[in-house]
Amino acid sequence: MVFKNLYIGNVKIGSPIVQAALSGYSDWPMRVIARRHGASYGICEVMLDKFLIELKERNRTSHFLHTSDEEHPVGGQLMGSEPEQFSQGAKKLVAAGFDVIDINFGCPVKKVLGRCRGGFHLSQPKIALEIISRTRQVVPETVPVTVKMRRGIDDSQQSRDHFFEILDGAFQIGVAAVTVHGRTVTQKYNGPSRWEFLREVKKHVGEKTILGSGDLFTPESCLDMMRETGVDGVTVARGAIGNPWIFEQSLSLMRGVPKPPPPTLFRQRTVIEEHYRLAETLYGSRVGPMMRKFGIKYSALHPQHVDVRQAFTRVKDFQQWKSVLDNWYAKDLPGVFPDGKLHKAQGSCEAV
Question: Looking at domain 6-254, which CATH architecture does it have?
Fold first, then answer.
């Protein structure tokens, strides 16, 4: 199979393997690290429309909308319940410099659904399409609008009908691409992602752009999804946390060359240190506890990942962070490929 460059509307993305929006993770430092390792595109962690509308220009909140030249094109993801408020939030993302506006109709978290946000909209096509329409109207024509969906609220016929009503209506309104996660909202992260549904969706829309999502924890799975379903690209979510190398490994496989070995400990340390440095420039001295979750994810590539993970859980400041690296990354030993089962078990929302 020949893998083509991905386009989202008029925006050339490049590699069809991109980084998904990840609540609590896909901030500017993570996106930059992913970009440097081959991710052609990334989406910021989702923001609420109400939050964006009320957001003031203050140092303590500036990180939410921070982007840099090297990460473009970059997408801004939005979530909310009211169509008018939603469109006003989209304006804020455009003004902040995001190249694509992504609408979240996929989040399955209970508190989100209870406030009629995220995946809840898959149960109300009329409101969902009004949100898309109003967003498309206020966003400049040069800025593509995309939608993230799950395959429905559940596996009922009504849910299926609602999915395709929203899908077809979204493209008629003028969205440039739709990302489809192969699980239902009620399924959350339990059970396998249904790739055969992605194949059906792609066949249904023809030449229109569909990206697939769900169970992408290895570079092989990224290519397999495109081969098996025909989708135009894939969005790597949990599989990219603490493992930016999944993008460069995927690029190698797409080019027909052997997959690179897992990064050695010295290479891991260099990236972990740079990730911390980028975070410190964005968040300042309070970055220590915030980076702990990333250290835990990076530990999955260490041959003694259980012990290293435990060490990272105790990190509170830079000195403790450095101590973990000095203790566990002092010798340039071979790394290991992360165990996808560990990521699957954790199940955090891709966009909250």
Answer: Alpha-Beta Barrel (3.20)
